Amino acid sequence: MNDKTVIKSDWDKEGFSQRFSKAASIQIPMREKMFKTLFLFFNFHFKHEPSVRILDLGCGDGVLISELLNMNPNIKATLVDGSAEMVDLAKKRFDENKSIEIIHARFEDLITTESSLLQYDLVISSLAIHHLTKDDRRKLFVFIYSHLTKGGYFINIDTVLPPEGEIEEFYLLLWEEWIDEVSGITGESDKYHDLIYGHHQSLNHLSRVAPLVEQLTLMEETGFIDIDCIMKYGIFAMYIGRKP
Ligand SMILES: C[S@@+](CC[C@H](N)C(=O)[O-])C[C@H]1O[C@@H](n2cnc3c(N)ncnc32)[C@H](O)[C@@H]1O
User: Fold this and answer.
1) Which residue of 39, 59, 81, 199 sits with most ligand 1 atoms within 8 Å of its CB, as the best mutation to test the pocket?
2) Domain membership flag for residue 53
């Protein structure tokens, strides 16, 4: 993995990552509820495990692992992100914690170079995989599968492509409603209008984000079992699968 790798997206623009971290709970509908659901599942499944190895793909500033560590201090985790700025934030957050390894790498590099990563009981990812091409997503799912222990789980929170037309319009309306609701100010979503429509309708987004059914089918083709969509709100979904 190459530390000098440059991620060619908004995430590499200075300040973009920090702005995201601050505004994320307003911008991303149900983000906290989805996180809470992930934590509940973790508690439900890994509560009695004396040690748990977790891989977080697209870790951002490390918010997910930080919360999980509060629930189980025996976690050993590897965090991967393609943005130098996010990696710096994560390194600051975990400071000298020897159980946390933070790697600056793009998924595109992970799937094409020989992996030095270990085996994990849980692989998590939040809002990070959707910019991959279909082919790279397939390879990343295979990568994830190969790095899971027997019985290990993969949980992905990500955007999904809605059916074009009325349903899509409705989902974008839901997104605006969400922003007005959480900000407590009607019309607040105007501030985020460009983000909502710009992001959703950008070629990069529309050409790469896959429908939920396609993502779940890919999980199945990779070999995962017990696949299910745990939560969904408009274009945001959280799904799970287990390695047999
Ligand atoms: C929307 S943020 C989410 C961060 C964190 N998972 C969260 O939910 O708060 C997406 C993260 O994925 C990372 N990312 C996006 N595409 C990536 C890629 N191809 N390889 C590695 N990291 C990527 C970005 O740098 C960013 O930190």
Assistant:
1) 81
2) yes
